[in-house]
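Long-time lurker. I teach an intro course on protein structure, and each term I like to show students one example going from raw sequence to a predicted 3D structure in token notation. This year I'd like something fresh instead of my usual example. Would anyone be willing to generate the tokens for the chain below so I can use it in lecture? Attribution to the forum is fine with me.
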Amino acid sequence: MKAVIATGYGAPEVLAIRDIQIPTPKEKQVLIKVVVASTTRADGMMRTGKPYFGRLFTGISKPKNPIPGTGFAGEIVDTGRKVTLFNIGEMVFGETTLGFSTNAEYVVVPEDGVILHKPENMSFAEAATFCDGHLTSINFLKEIAKIKAGQKVLINGASGSLGTAAVQLAKYYGAHVTGVCSERNIGLVKSLGADRVIDYNQEDFTRSDESYDIIFDTVGKSSFSESQKVLTTEGLYISPVLKFSLLMQMLKTSLFGRKKAKFAASGLKSDHELKDLLVELVEIYNQGKIRSIIDRQFPLENVVRAHRYIANGHKRGNVVLTIQN
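-- Reply from a regular --
Happy to contribute to a lecture. Here you go:
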């Protein structure tokens, strides 16, 4: 099979297409023919190996899992002899968390992992992205921030993968939502339900007269120190972008003050916890309350171009790799 192989840490050019053996599922695993795989900003960070302390999880000198990618959508083509939850021919989607390996024509996944049957009305491209922006955003807003109806929530980076999902989820939970993005994406963010949209080139939200119960910085471009001025008395600053400064602020605010800074790695949650959140997301999707924004689709052979495009920092929603026609 064809697969993307990271030959080391570095620029997108460290990614190469190689022919390798199709994996064989163990007794409680399924073999999936991947139709679409996600490719994300997080994949780019793992490719570069930065921040360096992240290599404690991904490999010190080079990626210990050389095939990148975590989100997938495809068809089950083989099962281990003890698999009971899935059958050959069924369409599924999910993610491999720290197992990576989805940027390939086939991937093996534990049947009790983060994997669900794909809804018939959900495209493969949509399904492959659900475990990036959607799953991370529901974890941060519902599990970490404990979002409540009537709260004022600001989403920084509202037009990206996490941001587009977060705007929709925050509205679903009944919050008043302010999105921050560039001028060209204002219409998109409004269409997702944002009550107010700020063009970051025209206004710095950290200098605003508004105050927010939750600031969700999906892109890590601000900081708790800058944002605390516009947090309410018991306001919360959350971000999935790991920085040493954020870790220090987490420690400090856990001991002092009522305003808090929090970070969490959604991929480190248990498969059971992630699967429960994914089930809830599918229910929200079936209610017509959330959708996936697909910016561009690249064929597997153009994975370097896909990573370059994401690294430019101007994508709208999600970027995916089309593995099978």
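Some talking points for your students: DSSP finds nine helices and 15 strands in the chain. The mean pLDDT is 94.
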